[in-house]
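Weekly modeling sync, notes
Attendees: S.R. (lead), two postdocs, one rotation student

Agenda item 3: backlog of single-chain predictions. S.R. asked that every request posted to the team notebook include the full sequence so nobody has to chase files. The rotation student volunteered to paste the first one in as an example of the format we agreed on. Action items at the bottom.

Example entry:
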Amino acid sequence: MAEHHRRSAGFTLVEMLVAIGMLVVGLTSLIALMTAGVSARGSAELRDRAARAADWVLHDLETRRVWQTVEATTADPPVADGEGRAPGGGAAPEAALDELAPAVYEALDGFPRLRARVEFQTDPDHTGLVLATIKVHWREGGEAVAEVFQRLVRRSPPFPVRVGRSRSSS
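Predicted structure, as returned to the notebook:
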């Protein structure tokens, strides 16, 4: 009669090595996904901060820069001749407004590590508007990163400023 060897219950060494290998691959993938998720979250937070910083810059431009330039050039609006010159040879108000200098923000209030540069474009067909291109810069992971936002800015003062002026003049 042939002897039958009874196999003992349990796993063989090969089965254990395969299981451990699968576990290592799974855990490595999970750690890589978590690292990528944390990095993506940090990047998304910085991009959100950049969008909020662009809104802050836009507010600053509307309340201080653009409309003050308009007021300064239109305080006593001279009548321009047909060639865009004001009486006395200076530039007419519209010509002065077409040359809004770029604005550079090396530090943004409430937004550490962010910088911004704003450039303006005017359209002769829409003289009441200025296109502000806001480029927000920061460093992420040692690399320079930037987001660009474009907004239309009215050349007239914002409503609260207009109301304040009309009350003070009455």
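Discussion: group reviewed the output briefly. Residues 26 and 116 are 43 Å apart (CA to CA).
Action items: rotation student to repeat for the remaining queue; S.R. to check formatting next week.
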